[in-house]
């Protein structure tokens, strides 16, 4: 992306609204800090910035009460417009929220709501909402050039964005969590004019959830980070703790089960059992309802801290630990890098893990033993070794979290003439079809031309073998080019002859939403075609995170070399069926293939066009 100032010149003087549930300089949450700093930096660039928010003081207050005064006020270069919050049924919300939080994300399926329509509606209606805000958007929305809504899961976004969708950008701050699977969220994602992401990992997650149709309107803008590095201003003490005199690993953030703090605490206790003489302490800093540090040797809970106290803790720690698996960016990770301190992050959190892997600015850990080993390494490493890791992180942070570059990327998104061009797949998939396919059966997919019954014969015999291994399976054959009526009739006759009517779907004349539903529901893409005419469809499978099993032809190899398994010999269709079952059931193999496909699709196509999918907007 070009940062030569052109975007700034083209986008200067815009009227921009930041729409967020809570706003104020005293708020410490990630989205709250991001919305405030974004508004301030856009205004500093000469834009006319309004913040549209509610009269609810913070995330921790009653969302149905207006504790702040409604109306407009100026704060520096910003206009803050506050709107009364709506009354809500808090019990109904908490009931549904408890159901969502109890769900295992690994068991959820894309484009299938994890809860029923009535519960989903209750969740959204009893979130934080403001009818007066929505009335303002409907009446005054045409007076703004652009809107930025964040984060994604609250009523102010779900109900507000559709009212101004033609000029609305969604900055989802997306996590892999049950909320992201709600149909209302998918509708909002597809309705937005553009999508703005904090990190490559967040973008990848969004594509995997909502399909490659969003790519054309997506940009990774990053997130700016500001820290006070003037050590003369740092306090000597944080409570009773003196950072400069201690040897410690730091956790900074909300002490909440959702942040996976318990894993870090358990790993530290395991570390101390194996290294009882170590002086390494674990310092927990941040808001909490229950302390994780009570009666635990070596764990120091300093509670909520000021900005200067936070800087003092970051400046003197050996490393920062970020155990959360649900981050879209992790501001504290970049704050640690601003002080040239290394980080330890969870390997199962794509946004943080990707940044650490690319920067070499820290360590990755997933299992409990891996976290304990990381703590041993932090304890055993020399100051020079830790400093070297931290400096690499600092270089990466300087490139990706400097506000000057971040604001230019926002302005580039606003100025782009490409963003309004909609991808035909940027719409909701066929939801009834998706739900029907989410019945527990394994879904195998072939998409491509169907030119004759002979063309499909090997695929049908393969599927018969697969059914001997897994009776509850389904094969969908999606014709992506017109089928001659005689060929279609011959295929249907063969399906009946092989007694596959209840196990095989032959679809033609598919709308993009229907084809998208098939890709989103697929457990594997199978192509035993040697004519190489399905290469484009293999590209789509890669973008939908569907592992591929295909014949080893030059065209297939060029597409799926890292995104699947290629077979040379198709004479033993039973062996190929066994291989397909391994591809479906082996989670480690699947994740390795999906990771390879993601790497390939990011770096291998610099011409900006992949099988008709335009990725230049990234």
Describe this structure in words.
With 618 residues, the protein is of the alpha/beta class. The chain is 41% helix and 16% strand. The protein contains 23 helices and 22 strands. It is globular, with a radius of gyration of 26 Å. The model is unreliable at 1-10 and 604-618 (pLDDT under 50).
CATH structural class of the largest domain: Alpha Beta
| Number of discrete domains | 3
Shape: globular
Mean pLDDT: 89
Give the spatial strand order of the biggest sheet: 3-4-2-1-5-6-7-8
Rg value: 26 Å
Which spans have pLDDT < 50 for at least 5 consecutive residues?
Answer: 1-10, 604-618
The CATH architecture of the largest domain can be named as 3-Layer(aba) Sandwich
Question: How are the SSEs placed, and which strands pair?
Answer:
Layout: H1 6-11, E1 15-19, H2 30-44, E2 48-54, E3 71-75, E4 78-83, H3 90-101, H4 117-125, H5 131-140, E5 146-149, H6 155-158, E6 168-170, H7 183-191, E7 194-197, H8 200-210, E8 218-220, E9 248-252, H9 261-274, E10 281-285, E11 299-303, H10 307-316, E12 319-322, H11 331-338, E13 343-346, H12 350-359, E14 362-365, H13 368-380, H14 383-400, H15 403-415, H16 431-437, E15 442-448, H17 453-469, E16 473-479, H18 485-497, E17 504-507, H19 512-521, E18 524-527, H20 535-543, E19 548-551, H21 554-560, E20 564-567, H22 573-585, H23 587-603, E21 609-610, E22 613-614
Parallel strand pairs: 1-2, 1-5, 2-4, 5-6, 6-7, 7-8, 9-10, 9-12, 10-11, 12-13, 13-14, 15-16, 15-18, 16-17, 18-19, 19-20
Antiparallel strand pairs: 3-4, 21-22
Helix pairs in contact: 3-4, 8-12, 9-13, 11-14, 12-14, 16-19, 17-22, 20-21
């Amino acid at each position: 992306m070009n940062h030569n100032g052109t975007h700034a010149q083209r986008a200067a003087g815009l009227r921009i609204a930041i729409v967020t549930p809570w706003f104020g300089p005293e708020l410490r949450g990630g989205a709250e800090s991001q919305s405030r700093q974004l508004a301030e930096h856009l205004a500093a660039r000469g834009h006319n910035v309004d913040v549209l928010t509610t009269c609810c003081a913070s995330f921790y207050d009653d969302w149905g009460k207006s504790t702040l005064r409604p109306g407009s006020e100026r704060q520096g270069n910003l206009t803050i417009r506050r709107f009364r919050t709506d009354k809500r049924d808090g019990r109904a919300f908490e009931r549904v929220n408890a159901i969502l939080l109890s769900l295992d994300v690994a068991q959820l399926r894309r484009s299938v709501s994890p809860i029923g329509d009535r519960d989903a509606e209750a969740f959204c209606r009893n979130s934080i909402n403001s009818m007066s805000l929505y009335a303002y958007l409907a009446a005054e929305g045409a007076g703004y050039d652009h809107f930025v809504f964040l984060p994604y899961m609250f009523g102010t976004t779900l109900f507000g964005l559709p009212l101004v969708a033609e000029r609305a950008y969604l900055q989802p701050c997306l996590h892999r969590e049950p909320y992201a699977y709600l149909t209302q969220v998918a509708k909002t994602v597809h309705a937005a004019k553009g999508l703005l992401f904090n990190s490559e990992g967040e973008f990848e997650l969004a594509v995997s959830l909502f399909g490659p149709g969003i790519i054309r309107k997506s940009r990774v803008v990053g997130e700016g980070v500001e820290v006070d590095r003037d050590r003369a201003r740092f306090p000597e003490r944080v409570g009773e703790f003196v950072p400069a005199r201690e040897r410690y690993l730091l956790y900074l953030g909300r002490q909440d089960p959702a942040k996976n703090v318990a894993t870090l605490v358990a790993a530290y206790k395991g570390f101390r059992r194996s290294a009882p003489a170590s002086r390494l302490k674990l310092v927990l800093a941040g808001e909490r309802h229950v302390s994780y540090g009570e009666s635990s040797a070596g764990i120091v809970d300093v509670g909520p801290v000021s900005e200067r106290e936070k800087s003092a803790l970051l400046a003197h720690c050996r490393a920062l630990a970020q155990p959360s698996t649900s981050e879209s960016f992790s501001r504290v990770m970049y704050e640690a890098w601003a002080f040239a301190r290394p980080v330890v992050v969870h390997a199962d959190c794509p946004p943080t893990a990707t940044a650490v892997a690319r920067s070499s600015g820290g360590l990755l850990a997933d299992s409990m033993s891996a976290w304990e080993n990381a703590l041993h390494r932090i304890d055993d490493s020399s100051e020079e070794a830790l400093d070297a890791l931290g400096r690499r992180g600092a270089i990466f942070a300087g490139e990706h979290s400097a506000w000057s570059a971040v604001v230019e990327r926002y302005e580039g998104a606003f100025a782009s003439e490409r963003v309004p061009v909609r991808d035909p797949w940027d719409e909701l998939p066929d939801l009834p079809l998706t739900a029907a396919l989410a019945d527990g059966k394994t879904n195998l997919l072939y998409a491509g031309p169907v030119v004759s019954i002979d063309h499909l014969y090997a695929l049908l015999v393969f599927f018969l073998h697969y059914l001997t291994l897994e009776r509850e399976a389904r094969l969908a054959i999606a014709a992506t080019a017109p089928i001659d009526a005689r060929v279609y009739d011959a295929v249907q006759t063969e399906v009946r002859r092989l007694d596959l009517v209840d196990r095989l779907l032959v679809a033609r004349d598919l709308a993009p939403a229907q084809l998208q539903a098939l890709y989103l529901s697929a457990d594997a893409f199978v192509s035993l075609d040697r004519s190489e005419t399905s290469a484009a469809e293999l590209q789509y499978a890669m973008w939908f995170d569907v592992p591929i099993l295909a014949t080893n032809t030059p065209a297939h190899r060029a597409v799926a070399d890292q995104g699947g398994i290629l077979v040379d010999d198709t004479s033993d269709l039973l062996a190929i069926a066994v291989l397909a079952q391994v591809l479906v059931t082996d989670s480690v193999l699947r994740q390795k293939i999906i990771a390879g496909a993601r790497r390939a699709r990011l770096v291998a196509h610099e011409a900006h066009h992949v099988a008709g999918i335009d990725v230049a907007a990234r």
